[in-house]
Amino acid sequence: MSRSVLVTGGNRGIGLAIARELAAAGDAVAVTYRSGEPPEGLFGVRCDVTSTEDVDAAFAKVEAEQGPVEVVVANAGITKDTLLAIMSEDSFASVVDTNLTGSYRVAKRAVKAMMRKRTGRIVLVSSVVGLMGSAGQSNYAASKAGMVGFARSLARELGSRGITVNVVSPGFVDTDMTAVLTEDQQKTIMAAVPLGRIAKPEEIAKAVRFVASEDAAYITGAVIPVDGGLGMGH
């Protein structure tokens, strides 16, 4: 049965791979994007997840196009990496506002319809950095770690309504964000990954597809690592 799905930050990278994977499974998939153009073949809505008004408007457009959102994937995120000693308060706050508080805005807007239907899937895209930490990424790590506590609290709140809330935690993935790394940096990363390579966006998407599926109906509050073994033990 086709479901109404919304993927934030779904016009490129991991988000686009997730949107295409869910569309291939037969779902009606909409994506939000802040800049650029919507991807071909998907319903696109311009939205800045740091704006509650934007999020409300995006959901209204998606609901009018394909019905109440039954699966939401909070993927939109940014980085502003630098060492704490020289990190501005704005650099810290803006990353947390986009990555963590943006997920709160999206989940809050989605959950009322899910509660009425007594079913739903909420998936938050975190990062191995949120559990391992990373020098120069204290803002990003804080935002991604916060998703875990947020998701597990929601899982306890919403479980009785048939709504699952899970976290997918990617490691290093072949996207625009990692494309800027030097060859030496990529070699260092791959040396730390037991599988010895960077992930493809489609590998993250398949994990999201699973936790959003009926097959995962008894999984909630989980953190699913898709990191080649980099974060083992976390």
UniProtKB/TrEMBL annotation:
> Looking at the keywords, is Oxidoreductase present?
yes
Gene Ontology molecular-function annotations:
oxidoreductase activity, acting on the CH-OH group of donors, NAD or NADP as acceptor
**A GO biological process this protein is involved in?**
fatty acid elongation
The alphabetical list of record keywords is: Oxidoreductase
Do you know which InterPro entries this protein is assigned to? KR_dom, NAD(P)-bd_dom_sf, Sc_DH/Rdtase_CS, SDR_fam
In terms of SUPFAM superfamilies, this protein maps to:
NAD(P)-binding Rossmann-fold domains (SSF51735)
| A Pfam family of this chain | adh_short_C2
Q: Which residues form the Ketoreductase domain?
A: 3-176
- CDD domains, sorted: BKR_SDR_c
Entries under NCBIfam families matching the protein? PRK12826.1-2
The family line of this record is:
Belongs to the short-chain dehydrogenases/reductases (SDR) family.
Name of the protein in its database record: Beta-ketoacyl-ACP reductase
The source organism is Actinomadura darangshiensis
